[in-house]
Amino acid sequence: CDLQSVDAAPMKIYGVPGSMNCMGPILLAMDSGLGGMEMMMPYSTPETYAEVTPFRQVPGLEAGTLKIQESGAILRYLAAKAKLMDSMSLQEKARDDYATDAFSHILYSNVILPLVYPVFGYRGDPEDKPAAAKTALEKLALYEQAIFATGVDGKLVNGRDASSPLSAADYKLGPFLYALAHPAIEKANPDFVCPDWVKTYAKTFCSKSKSSGMLESAGGYSLKEMLDQKL
After folding, report:
1. How many other CB atoms are there within 10 angstroms of residue 33's CB atom?
2. pLDDT for 137-194, tens place per residue?
3. Which residues pair with 68 in a beta bridge?
4. How many angstroms separate the CA atoms of 51 and 12, rounded?
5. pTM value?
6. Is the Cα dihedral 32, 160, 77, 99 positive or negative?
7. What's the pLDDT band for 4 if we cut at 50, 70, 90?
8. Which residues contact 95 (CB under 8 A, 6 or more apart)?
9. Distance CA 132, CA 141 (A)
10. Rounded to an integer, what distance in angstroms lies between the CA atom of residue 101 and that of residue 168?
11. How far is CA 82 from CA 7, 35, 129, in A?
């Protein structure tokens, strides 16, 4: 997606709508008015994309001489450009980073990789699906306790009221939890029952993100459209 930053410097985000990692930065950029949207297929020109990141994974960001990968880093950069978190205290920003990093290091490996990615066809099923489901539910319960200690109803990351702007961590979690709450995940994993807090948060996120319709419709390649095919 081609974007213009708030100071009009040219910027590009490389990503695709069928990637939960990509959709966070894409939605943040669209919601914040950082520029227009043009989807790009980075893997169609791998040598060119290698100049952005030698790892050749998405999403990637190019802003002048800045060339980075990893959705968390990109989200923090975009949130700063859009001044989304300027009203937060230093402690609040630290907890937002904590929510992002805890997701990346705990939920991604114990929930998303074994339960969600196989449904998309991004990787194979875990060897022991019941055990994977059990671990996923345990990690989700711990995450809810640590990040949503005040309850999830109508709340954003770290118990912020839904009237608050979405943060970098919200944009990190939103697309992943939206996909996790889709019924295709439970269908493919009979021992997994999606926790209510995940479904509630996904709805709150979508109601806050003006561009969340892209999670549902993107020419057959949105998260919902791809998961609907698995029902």
Report:
1. 12
2. 999 999 999 998 766 677 899 888 888 999 999 999 999 999 999 999 999 999 999 9
3. 61
4. 13
5. 0.91
6. negative
7. very low
8. 158
9. 14
10. 11
11. 10, 11, 41
